Amino acid sequence: MVRDLARKRQQLVRSRTQHILAVENITARQYGKRITSNQVKSLGEQAIEQMHLPDDVSLAVRANVAVITTLSAQINILEKRLHDKVAPELDYALLTTVPGIGHTLATVILLEIGSIDRFASAGNFASYARCVDSQRMSNGKKKGEGNTRNGNKYLAWAFIEAANFAQRFCDPARRFYERKKARTNPIVARKALAHKLARACFHMLKERKPFDRTRCFA
């Protein structure tokens, strides 16, 4: 299934990130300064030689870089296949109109939803995407939580990532986030923004209309 291909891509990206962090940590220990992930991805044999690392450390870096290179090649292959599969879909184009949702997140959201008609309401969809707080409160005090494993973890990740990008690059989303953060904390504010975006996606896909910032953040 195409959805499984998208999940495999996420698995490979997570694995690549682990190896990138390993190289960053090595350079931090050796030089007292961490290089960036993009610098790690661009490391070649000559660049590693110029780092003048101890032999054993250099071998470790080469091993990490070899795995990163292999994973990046496979990720690129999967991304091309996924794009070929989802790009013709109208729902894919609609999702990319949402602030914070680019090609990768639109692909994940589209494939994990399947059909939006599975969900009776925006609330049902937001709950499935784990964008609804499961805490039980009494007299302002936390008394427990519901089953936080209910729902779809891939959608939960996608909408949190979308909220992270939206609050950085979309003014109305940033203002919404800052208002929530002032009353609560950054984690709750980010979850609230993710919830907002999830509900907006539900209505967009139901109505076959692009994202409306005024309607979402009014």
Describe, in plain words, how this protein is organized in 3D.
- This protein has 218 residues and is mainly α.
- It folds into two domains: 2-86; 90-217, no CATH class.
- Helix content is 71%, strand content 4%.
- It has eleven helices and two strands, in the order αααααααββαααα.
- The chain has helices at 2-31, 37-41, 45-50, 55-86, 90-95, 103-113, 122-128, 153-169, 171-183, 186-207, 213-217, and strands spanning 135-138, 141-145.
- The chain has a two-stranded antiparallel ribbon with strand order 1-2.
- It is globular and about 60 Å long.
- The two termini are 39 Å apart.
Task: Sum this structure up briefly.
The chain is built from eleven helices and two strands; from the N terminus they run αααααααββαααα. By secondary structure, it is mostly helical. A two-stranded antiparallel sheet has the order 1-2.
